[in-house]
């Protein structure tokens, strides 16, 4: 594996409420050291706390994506562990959730495959300690530690790039809505709240011909502990409604996410899994109507709906927090054709009161109905 420059803090506009760490590069970009398992081909993404590379597994020749996270800053470790715990807590695959292959911790010249909750691994325990204590306790100062996440490679870019580089297509929109709903229902059934759903974190593969969405970036996700004993039962379809109710009563308090997709209650810092439903509502509404804004930091055009207040654009969740009675004009553009069923479903997903939103299980049923009828 190679050493290269590392994470970058996201700008304030589209940023997470909870801070992601920032590290200065230790090695100049381009310095390389080869590891035995994967060959890195090219940098494909650079996020707030890591660099993502396209790579090839040397043994099988399979293309993979490898996310490298530098572990000296506790914030980085916290996010890396959140991602690791969420992805390893999934006992089954889902077609619309990015497939995790393995996680390797590289430290002091050693590379060790990480396994969840491995109490016999000193390195794993020290990672947890780093995150809990909020101070650097890993590695020698002169050699940084890295976590390498290996996952399936999504060659089709993200949802912004995919949608905005093509003509509007109602059939693709419907398929994407069903795929996203299915992914979130799967995550919620497995007691994972994603908390950072946005088009940049929805990746695409077209290996099978038609585009397949993959929900990615679990760095802000939360595995709702205490409910996990039911997870096998849930994933096998037993007693699902009760488990959904449980998850939707599991209160979270760290206000995180990205402004334009954050539900009103997330702005207040007291929310449940229903926050993911709100984010999906924003993404789907923007996708159908191609509503975009320009990100203040990256200057990229991003899919996302907002409210206009004079010359300002305000995230829908923030505007609803100020005025919960505000009526959303869905569709926003006169020329958009949208069935009454989809209109109502989007309005319900974006209800100011989370209790008025469908949970992921109800959403699956209703999405099937409205996309069949449309
Ligand atoms: N599995 C993957 N396949 C292809 N590209 C990826 C993959 N994972 C991440 N990327 C690219 O890297 C970017 C950053 O990765 P992400 O997991 O979202 O980290 P961050 O938390 O830093 O945003 C993504 O927006 C995407 O462009
Ligand atoms: Mg991301």
UniProtKB/TrEMBL annotation:
Enzyme Commission code: 2.7.11.1
Q: Which compartments does it reside in?
A: Nucleus
Task: Classify the source by domain of life.
Answer: Eukaryota
Bias (Basic and acidic residues) ranges: 1-15
Biased region (Basic residues) positions are 16-27
Disordered, as annotated region: 1-31
Q: Keywords for this entry? A: ATP-binding, Kinase, Nucleotide-binding, Nucleus, Serine/threonine-protein kinase, Transferase
Segments forming domain Protein kinase: 38-370
Q: Matching Pfam families, A to Z?
A: Pkinase (PF00069)
* SUPFAM superfamilies, per the entry: Protein kinase-like (PK-like)
Claim: Electron transport is one of the keywords in the record: no
Q: Name one GO biological process term.
A: negative regulation of G2/MI transition of meiotic cell cycle
Recorded catalytic reaction(s): these are: L-threonyl-[protein] + ATP = O-phospho-L-threonyl-[protein] + ADP + H(+); L-seryl-[protein] + ATP = O-phospho-L-seryl-[protein] + ADP + H(+)
Q: What class of enzyme is it?
A: transferase
Q: Which GO terms describe its molecular function?
A: ATP binding; protein serine/threonine kinase activity
* Gene Ontology annotations for the cellular component aspect, listed alphabetically: cytoplasm; nucleoplasm
Q: Does the keyword Amino-acid biosynthesis apply?
A: no
Provide the binding site for ATP. 68
Q: Which PANTHER family is this protein grouped with?
A: EUKARYOTIC TRANSLATION INITIATION FACTOR 2-ALPHA KINASE EIF2-ALPHA KINASE -RELATED, SERINE_THREONINE-PROTEIN KINASE 35
The entry assigns this protein to a family as follows: Belongs to the protein kinase superfamily. Ser/Thr protein kinase family. GCN2 subfamily.
Give the protein name, as stated in the record. Answer: non-specific serine/threonine protein kinase
Lineage of this protein's species?
A: Eukaryota, Metazoa, Chordata, Craniata, Vertebrata
């Amino acid at each position: 594996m190679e050493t290269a420059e590392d994470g970058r803090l996201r700008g304030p506009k589209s940023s997470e409420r909870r801070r992601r760490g920032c590290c200065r590069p230790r090695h100049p970009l381009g310095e390389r050291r080869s590891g035995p398992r994967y060959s890195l081909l090219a940098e494909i993404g650079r996020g707030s706390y890591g660099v993502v590379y396209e790579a090839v597994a040397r043994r099988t020749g399979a293309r993979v994506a490898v996310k490298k996270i530098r572990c000296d800053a506790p914030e980085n470790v916290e996010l890396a562990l959140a991602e690791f715990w969420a992805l390893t807590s999934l006992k089954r695959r889902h077609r619309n959730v990015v497939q995790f292959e393995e996680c390797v911790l590289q430290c002091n010249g050693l590379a060790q495959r990480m396994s969840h909750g491995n109490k016999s691994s000193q390195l794993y325990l020290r990672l947890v300690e780093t995150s809990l204590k909020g101070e650097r306790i890993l590695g020698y100062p002169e050699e940084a530690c890295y976590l390498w996440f290996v996952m399936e490679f999504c060659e089709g870019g993200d949802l912004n790039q995919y949608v905005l580089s093509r003509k509007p297509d109602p059939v693709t929109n419907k398929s994407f809505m069903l795929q996203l709903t299915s992914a979130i229902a799967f995550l919620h059934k497995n007691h994972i709240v994603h908390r950072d759903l946005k088009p940049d974190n929805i990746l695409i593969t077209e290996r099978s011909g038609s585009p397949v969405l993959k929900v990615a970036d679990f760095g802000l996700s939360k595995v709702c502990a205490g409910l996990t004993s039911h997870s096998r039962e849930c994933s096998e379809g037993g007693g699902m409604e009760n488990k959904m109710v449980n998850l939707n009563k599991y209160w979270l308090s760290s206000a995180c996410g990205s402004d334009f997709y954050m539900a009103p209650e997330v702005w207040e810092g007291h929310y449940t899994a229903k926050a993911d439903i709100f984010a999906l509502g924003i993404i789907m509404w923007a996708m159908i109507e191609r509503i975009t804004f320009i990100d203040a930091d990256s200057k990229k055009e991003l899919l996302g709906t907002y409210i206009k207040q004079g010359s300002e654009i305000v995230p829908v969740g923030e505007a609803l927090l100020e005025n919960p009675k505000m009526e959303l004009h869905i569709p926003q553009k006169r020329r958009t054709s949208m069935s009454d069923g989809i209109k109502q479903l989007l309005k319900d997903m974006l209800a100011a009161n989370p209790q008025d939103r469908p949970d992921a299980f109800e959403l699956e049923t209703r999405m099937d109905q409205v996309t069949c009828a449309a």
